[in-house]
Amino acid sequence: MIVDEKLIEGKRLTWILRCPTKGDSEELSALRIKIDGETENLDREAGEGLLTSEDFKKLIYEDSISEKNLFLVAEVEGKLVGFARLQGNGLSRYRHKAEFGICILKEYWGYGIGKVLLDNILGYADNVGIKKVCLYVVETNTKAIELYKSFGFVQEGLLINDRIHMDGNYYNSVVMGRIID
C-alpha cells in the first residue's frame, strides 16, 4: 500500500515520512547494511541476508500493491535515515496478523522517528483490519521494549538463547504482540 507523504516536525528535527519509490532502492540497500553494522539489536550483521537494489525494487513494488503490507521510510534533508515495514500474512489462518520491524541510523536515535514510524504502521494495520501485530526484539533492547509497551504490545514469550552476538554470548528474544479486538 502507498500512503501520502507527511512532513514531521518532531524533537529538534524536521523530516519526511513517506513510502519508498524504485529510485530509493540503491540507497535502501546501502542503508540496511550500515544500520545492521551499527547495532546488535537487529537480526543481521552487516552484509548478512543482503538485499540488493533489485531486491528492494521488488519489495517496494509488491508492498505498493498489497493491502496488508506497508513500507515507510524516514528522510532527512534528502537522505534516508531509517525505515519500517509491516508484512501481512497471506495464509488464511493467519490473515488477521502481521509482523513488523524498524531500522534507524544510530545518529538519528532519540529524535522520535521510531515512535512516528510505529504509530503510522499501527494506524495503517488498524485501518486495514489487521487484528494482531507481532515482533521479536532482543531482551537487552529495553528502550524498544518500553516503546512497544506504550503502544499496547505485551510480552507473549521469551526465546531463550535465541541469538549469538559478536561478543560470543547468547541473548534472549522477546516475542511481543498487540491485539485489537
UniProtKB/TrEMBL annotation:
<dbReference type="InterPro" id="IPR000182">
    <property type="entry name" value="GNAT_dom"/>
</dbReference>
<dbReference type="Pfam" id="PF00583">
    <property type="entry name" value="Acetyltransf_1"/>
</dbReference>
<dbReference type="InterPro" id="IPR016181">
    <property type="entry name" value="Acyl_CoA_acyltransferase"/>
</dbReference>
<dbReference type="GO" id="GO:0016747">
    <property type="term" value="F:acyltransferase activity, transferring groups other than amino-acyl groups"/>
</dbReference>
<protein>
    <submittedName>
        <fullName>GNAT family N-acetyltransferase</fullName>
    </submittedName>
</protein>
<feature type="domain" description="N-acetyltransferase">
    <location>
        <begin position="26"/>
        <end position="181"/>
    </location>
</feature>
